[in-house]
Amino acid sequence: MDKTLRFGVVGTGWITDTFIEAASFDKRAVFTAVFSRKLETAQSFARKHNIKHCFTNLDEMCECDEVDAIYIASPNICHSPQAILCMNHKKHVLVEKPFAANLKQAEEMVECAKRNDIVLMEAMRLTVSPVFKAILSNMEKIGPVHKFVSLFCQFSSKFEKFKAGEKFSSLSADTAGGCLMDIGVYTIYPTVCMFGEPKSVHCVGSLLESGVDQEATIICGYEGKSAVLVSSKVSNNVADSEIQGEKGTILINKMNTFHSAKIIYKDGKEEELFTSQYKNDMVYEVNEFIDIVNSGKKESELNSHRNSLISMKILDEARKQIGINIETK
């Protein structure tokens, strides 16, 4: 029988609420601790989710013998130092996307995981979802693939307040924010899972006054095919994303959810690939992470260390090309 995994959480925002809701569908997951810089914030979150322990010191949470694994959902700039601290305490780590603030940090995280012989996984829910797995297993039906056009443009709910002078970590250079790091990664990671490391990366985009990108388009070049990855926090897309092959095209509805996909063949016939999965698709990253820990493996096949490192390498190169400083203070 699979063992229960006792989670501590870092971060008390809506994404952690959603993660805990998703974990309720996996009876192997329990939540025993929460970390926040402010005690009252931790206590309020703990009452909301019936969590026993509250901490304002991450070292102390990692020393708690009722914590087996840590879910990290803090600002991007904090991912690497917090993950490394937790792993050095022999805690398994599930870290929100993007994996780190830059490739150098990501490499240090992977080295730390291997040194401590524990599980480290990026919480990229799309690529462990049933829809994405169905896409992978059906791609041969559309013949040789030559193009992937991935669109994730979503007008930020914070943008008007940002223009009025408010500060947000997702739109700040100090916290490694920006469009590519926040939502562009949803177009990059599936590309890497499907095609691997590109031979070339070209990026155009525009920046906000804060020094991060508000929108960007990446072209990844591969042998015989290319991927066009479009993301924006200042506009919305209505068109579907497409994987185009010689025999047909796979349409993907919404790059941030992967809730449905279908094939349209050259003769016009259509085939639904998958239409039924949990609305809260973070369920699948919870399942994947706990499965890996209980199996004795150290990484996911799809959300692997290699795929996270390649994705981070693309993010670094794309951001540098449009004038973003990727170094951390």
Automatic annotation (TrEMBL):
Domain Gfo/Idh/MocA-like oxidoreductase N-terminal: 5-121
Highest taxon above the source species: Eukaryota
InterPro entries listed in its UniProt record: Gfo/Idh/MocA-like_OxRdtase_N (IPR000683), GFO_IDH_MocA-like_dom (IPR055170), NAD(P)-bd_dom_sf (IPR036291)
Span of domain GFO/IDH/MocA-like oxidoreductase: 141-250
Pfam entry (one): GFO_IDH_MocA
SUPFAM superfamilies: Glyceraldehyde-3-phosphate dehydrogenase-like, C-terminal domain (SSF55347), NAD(P)-binding Rossmann-fold domains (SSF51735)
GO molecular function, one term: nucleotide binding
Similarity section: Belongs to the Gfo/Idh/MocA family.
PANTHER family per record: PTHR43054, SCYLLO-INOSITOL 2-DEHYDROGENASE (NADP(+)) IOLU (PTHR43054:SF1)
Protein name: Oxidoreductase, NAD-binding domain protein
UniProt organism field: Tritrichomonas foetus
